[in-house]
Design brief:
Shape: globular
Oligomer: single chain
Strand content: 5-15%
Helix content: 10-25%
Order of helices and strands: HHEEHEEEEHHEHEEH
Number of helices: 7
Strand order of the largest sheet: 5-6-7
Largest sheet: 3 strands, mixed
Radius of gyration: 21 Å
Number of strands: 9
Distance between the termini: 41 Å
Number of domains: 2
Length: about 350
């Protein structure tokens, strides 16, 4: 009931501000200070001289840090869940802005409320980030007893270090190691215009559908989104020639030496041994996302490279680890597609060894 009240309240208050644009929201005049902050935690009338005008009653249980009207996750979800005026990021039901979108990031779960912790990022969870080295857990940043929240990954005011980042992503979340200062850039000044120097190509900044976004690879030896994920999960990050605990043996530079799946530095059209096939990848009608150095994704050229988001939804979905079970046929979904129901359908996007897994 409290969430419904917050959603209605924010929907009304948002009529005072322009509509949000993806990636740039929470900046300039697209969000008003009083929508999130309250000075004395005692508001009982509006901001007009006679006390009229709409206002939000502060959430019970406060006052909260940073003069917030509610705890971080409750405050964010008041707009980003259950029919709020912004994209719905929690749970498989998409009831927010863009309700027909196949959300690029999928959907979060929350302890005791939505989904299962095994399916992706879990709000309020206290667990240590898998593969973090040195180990990082939400309490290290949020304080004792305070689990994962939205601003552990996103910058609440849109800018991070003085510049807009894709989807308001923070610079170097978690412990920042081993990639301090990493930022995921996008074509924010020319939406719909290809920019080979940026990490993300966005066709429509009012849409969160995965078809409106593709991934660039300005440096063919690295993935900025892979590095960004690696600030919390750095033992899962790898490129050819990295240490054996990461992506490959230091003495090796190609597919033969990988001990973990690489997130950059391998091109599907240039791998030997029949382990990955550009032909097989291009045969899929429904393709997982890969990076391109030149901006050609369908059909993909020999330059394309898989990275973290090729296999995982950033927020999560209905599958273990947020994996994308995409067979290549059927209707695209956030879990993969309607003909994909197992891990091997994902592997078969690129790997010939899994090509015999026919669509069910």
């Amino acid at each position: 009931m409290k969430r419904i009240t917050w959603v209605v309240a924010f929907a009304l208050l948002l009529t005072c501000a322009p509509l949000a644009m993806a990636g740039d929201y929470h900046t300039d005049n697209t969000l008003l200070c009083a929508q999130c902050h309250i000075m004395h935690f005692s508001q009982s009338h509006g901001y007009q001289p006679n006390g009229s005008g709409f206002f939000l009653s502060p959430d019970p249980g406060g006052p909260f840090t940073f003069l917030l009207r509610a705890e971080v996750n409750d405050l964010c979800l008041s707009c980003h869940d259950a029919g709020g005026p912004a994209p719905d990021v929690l749970g498989s039901a998409n009831n927010g802005t863009g309700s027909s979108d196949i959300r690029l990031a999928g959907y979060l779960n929350r302890l005791g409320l939505e989904g299962f912790p095994a399916t992706g990022h879990t709000l309020d969870a206290l667990d240590e980030a898998p593969g973090s080295d040195p180990p990082w857990k939400p309490e290290d940043e949020n304080g004792a007893g305070k689990g994962l929240n939205c601003v552990n990954c996103h910058h609440q005011h849109a800018y991070a270090g003085g510049a807009n980042a894709y989807r308001n992503l923070r610079h170097s979340p978690g412990n920042g190691a081993p990639f301090p200062g990493v930022q995921v850039t996008y074509n924010d000044d020319q939406i719909g215009t290809f920019d080979i120097t940026k990490d993300v190509f966005e066709r429509d900044n009012a849409s969160y559908d995965e078809s409106d976004v593709d991934w660039m690879e300005p440096d063919p030896t690295q993935s900025k989104i892979g590095m960004w994920c690696g600030t919390c999960h750095d033992n899962f990050h790898g490129t050819p020639g990295d240490a054996a605990t990461v992506g490959g043996e230091a003495s090796g530079t190609d597919w033969q030496h990988f001990l973990r799946h690489p997130t950059a530095g391998v091109q599907l059209g240039n791998l030997g041994g029949g382990h990955s096939s550009l032909t097989q990848y291009n045969a899929n009608t429904n393709k997982v996302k890969v990076m391109s150095e030149v901006g050609t994704w369908d059909p993909a050229g020999s330059d394309v490279t898989p990275t973290c988001i090729s296999c995982h939804k950033a927020h999560g979905n209905g599958n273990a680890f947020g994996l994308i079970y995409r067979s290549g046929t059927g209707t695209v979904t956030e879990d993969g597609d309607t003909n994909g129901d197992q891990l091997e359908h994902l592997c078969g996007q690129c790997h010939v060894q899994a090509s015999f897994f026919a669509s069910p």
